[in-house]
Structures are given as C-alpha cells and as structure tokens.
Amino acid sequence: MDELPEPVTEKLQICPKLDSEHTLTAHAPATRYYTALVAGDLRSLEVLTDRYYQDVNMVFEISKNELEWQVKSQGSYGLSGLWSLEYKRELTTPLCLAARWGHTACLRHLLRRRADPNLAPGGHGPLHEACLGGHTDCVELLLEYEADPNLQSDEGLAPLHLCTTPDSLGCARLLLRHRATVDLPSEDGGETALHVAARHCLCDHARLYLKYGACVDARSAREETALSILCGQALGTGEDCLQLCRLLAAHGADIDARDETRRSPLHKACGAANAALARFLLLRGADVNAMDYGGTSPLRCVLQSAIFKQDIRPHLTVQLLLNHGSQKIWPAAFVKVLKSCAAVPEVIEVLFNSYSQIPISEKWIEAVPEEVFQQHQLFYESFFRLAGTVRCLQHLCRSAIRQKFGSKCYRLIPLLPVPKPLHDYLLLEPEGVVL
C-alpha cells in the first residue's frame, strides 16, 4: 500500500443493546453524555440519564483516527480470510468510562440505575478499567455492587493482572478481600499476579500476594517463575527489585529455577547486566556455570549484552562471575568477545586479566574498529603492546593467588592482610591500562 487514507474526525455512535443491528449516529445528547462521563460531570449525567438514556447499559462505539489491520470473515473470503486496513474502533460502556477516569460519583449514579458491573463489550470490564487507573474508590464501589473480581478480559487477564503500578496496591488489596483468586493464570501467558508484580518490580504487591497464599514458584506458559521474570527486567537495577528478590527468596523461591530454554534467574540477571541481583543469587548458591539449551553460561550472557548495557557498567557483572569461579571463555574465542565488546574496554580488561597468559593475535587488532580504538586509545595501545611478550610478575602472582582460591576469590581475597588497592587488583578491578 503506497498511501494511507487521510485521517478522519473521530465520531461517536451509541448501540442501545449489544446485539442490536441499529446504531445511533452521534448527536448532541450523545456527545454530551460521553463528555459528562469523561469529565466526571455528575449533574449533566443525571439530566441526560433522566431525559434520554434511561438504559445505562448502552454501548458506545468510538471510531478513532488510528489505523489497524483487521481480518474479515472466512465465510465470505475463504479459509485465509481477508485482511484490511481500517480505522480502530473501541466498544465501551458508560460504567467503563466512569471507572477508567476514576469518577466515583458518576459510577455510583450509574450503578444505582442498575448498570451491569460485569458488562465488557470492548474486552475490558469496569473493574479492569479501574485497576488500570489505580482508582481504589471505584474498585471498592464496583465490588460492593458484585462485580466479578475474577472476570477475564478478551486478553485473558483478570483485574489483578492489571494492577501494574504502585498506585494500584489498594485495588489489589480490595480484590483479594473480595475473593479474587491470587494464583489465577492469564489465558495466554499463564502468568499469575505474582509474575506481574515481578515484571513491574512491585515489592508491596508481591508481599500482599504471598500473604494471601500465592505460590512463589508458580510457572508461566514459558516455565518462568516470578524470580526468573524479575531478574530479566531492565528496570531491576533499583533497590526495590533487590528487595523483591530478597522477599521471594525468603519465601522459598527456587534460586536455580529453569525456564523452557533452561535459563536460570542468574542467566537473566547477567543478561540484564544486573550485578546486584547476580551477587545476591550467587551468595544464595546459584550455579555460576549453569548452561542453557544453547550451551550459554551466565558469563556469556553478560558478554552478549554488554554493548547495550554500557550505562550500568557491565564489567561489574563479569568481574563478579569470575570471582565466583565462572569458567573463562575459550582463549581461541576471545576474538569474538573483542568484536562484540570492544566499545566496553573495562569488560575486555577484566576478562583478559583473568587468564595468566593468553596470546594476542593479529585478528584481535583487526577486531577493534578504528573509531573505537581512537576513542579508547590509551587502553588499546597498552593492550596490543603485550603481543609476543610475557605478562609482568605482578600479574603472574595475581593469577597464582586466584588459581589457589578458585571459586572463593570473592570471599578469601578481602581477608588477606594487604592494602585495599591490592585487594582490588586481585579481584580484577579495571585500571584503564593493561600491564
């Protein structure tokens, strides 16, 4: 398609009944009715429901300027159907609109007029809308009028699945008090409310769900636990997510739980270059050399993502893994690390210094782009100057000590009676040059 249709003005239609073939094109009272709901204008709403719209279970059909692909009937167009680009439309109800905008007084007026609290023509019911907005008062009122706390949307999500912000904690608490099923899985992803809390790093929500008996190691359709999801989140570098990690572990979460690809929480934390979470998992006994189905270790995970995580210092995760006994990269594959991580010289330095001796080849020099070399000239000049030479005695002593301590480097080196700068050196702290 070369050109998209010109945008059209939004229009409003009202369907008095869901199964009715007749729709009313937008007119003045209908537009005022919609506006009153969105604005929370209770006085206008009362007038309009008295004069024009006594049936408060009508359905709004809102046509929008945005375009989306829609499939046509297979009965008319064959087994493959027909896809057409059409303007989006939204089906909703007065109750859903009032709940979405958090207008409790308007909501109460409609419910007293016998609005159905479970009517969801557009896929979301009023409870879904209220939870999305974190409108606790609206959730409380809807539940008083017997809204179903486990009603699933067209996407297979219950209201608890839509409590995704800190403001929605009160909504979640009310849902559970009204017997929402805490471990109800979503239809497609099989995720529980605890999975959702982990995805959004909502520690208080997770604590609430666990209090109500949530299974800490419930599996999604992809075999992920809440801990696994949490460790893979980009926003997981904050203190809240570390606190949530501690909470899940305290409730018995499996530290080495594998998903459908055999990736552990440590794989996920390292892929996100999250040194804080990785350290917590390792201290809890996570397998530093675990392999997924593709033969990828946690160390390889952080090396693969380092170029995209420069702002959160991925070398800290590399350093952490090596100090906990991670197997190093096969020396012949070091050139691949250079190609992917050259722009993060701290990673190259930490990894290179974990070997007692490793030969530098011409391919290594070719692997570093000229602009990267110029940007980090001091480091790469010192790095390639080692070609054909033996490492200094100080480095060889470091390697001997590290080999002796093995996977306990992280614990034993800080106990040595030497100055802190020497501790840092033994723990592979980067210095910006290689000697």
Report on the structure:
Keywords: ANK repeat, Repeat. One of its GO terms (cellular component) is BRCA1-BARD1 complex. With 435 residues, the protein is of the alpha+beta class. The protein folds into three domains: 30-65 and 86-147, Serine Threonine Protein Phosphatase 5, Tetratricopeptide repeat (Alpha Horseshoe); 182-327, Serine Threonine Protein Phosphatase 5, Tetratricopeptide repeat (Alpha Horseshoe), CATH 1.25.40; 330-434, no CATH class. It has helices at residues 28-39, 42-51, 74-77, 94-101, 104-112, 126-133, 136-144, 169-177, 193-199, 203-211, 226-231, 239-250, 265-271, 275-283, 298-305, 315-323, 334-341, 345-353, 362-367, 370-375, 377-384, 393-405, 409-412, 420-426; strands at residues 11-15, 24-25, 59-71, 83-92. The chain has a four-stranded antiparallel beta sheet. The model is unreliable at 1-11, 16-26 and 73-80 (pLDDT under 50).
